[in-house]
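Figure 3 (text version): structure tokens given as input.
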């Protein structure tokens, strides 16, 4: 029943018998609020820990092989006459995206029929899949809509694939907000 303090994140949550029952993940800090802490149950954390010990990374996580993405907002869509979605800045060689035929400057609009309106949408959709699963990607290229089948690769730690330099998104040399370039 001890309160979790700021700075305890990542530490063990111990029961009265000295057994680890969770890993502290967050504490709510606000005026008039005390003692609200959050932890990841040890059953969930143990699977991740075992994967890290055995393989050095968590296996089975899906990887597409695209980087330097830009969320195309409704305002950008109108201005550039392209659909709302996620603009691909670059495609890593020999990845799922490359094998599926995706290319720099394509705009992803759907994955398995689910609309993609932001980079966060792609991240959310990926959570429902594992490496080896196949999805249908809907995208536009040069004003035309296409679909392709993509089989997720497995995301490795510091993946060996290196993203090529991004294609310049904005034809008028403006620089809209983009992702951090690490790829997904």
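Below: residues designed for each position.
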């Amino acid at each position: 029943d001890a309160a979790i303090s700021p700075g305890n994140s990542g530490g063990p949550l111990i029961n009265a018998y000295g057994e680890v029952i969770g890993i502290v993940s967050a504490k709510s800090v606000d005026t008039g609020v005390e003692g609200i802490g959050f932890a990841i149950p040890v059953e969930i954390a143990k699977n991740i820990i075992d994967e890290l010990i055995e393989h050095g990374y968590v296996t089975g996580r899906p990887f597409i092989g695209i980087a330097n993405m830009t969320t195309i907002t409704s305002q950008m869509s109108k201005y550039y006459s392209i659909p709302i979605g996620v603009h691909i800045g670059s495609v890593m060689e020999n990845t799922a995206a490359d094998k599926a035929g995706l290319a720099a400057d394509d705009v992803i609009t759907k994955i398995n029929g689910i609309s993609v309106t932001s980079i966060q949408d792609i991240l959310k959709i990926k959570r429902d899949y594992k490496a080896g699963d196949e999805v249908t990607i809907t995208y536009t290229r040069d004003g035309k809509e296409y679909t392709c089948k993509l089989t997720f690769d497995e995301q490795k730690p510091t993946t060996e694939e290196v993203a090529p330099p991004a294609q310049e998104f904005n034809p008028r040399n403006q620089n809209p907000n983009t992702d951090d370039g690490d790829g997904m």
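Residues 93 and 148 are 17 Å apart (CA to CA).
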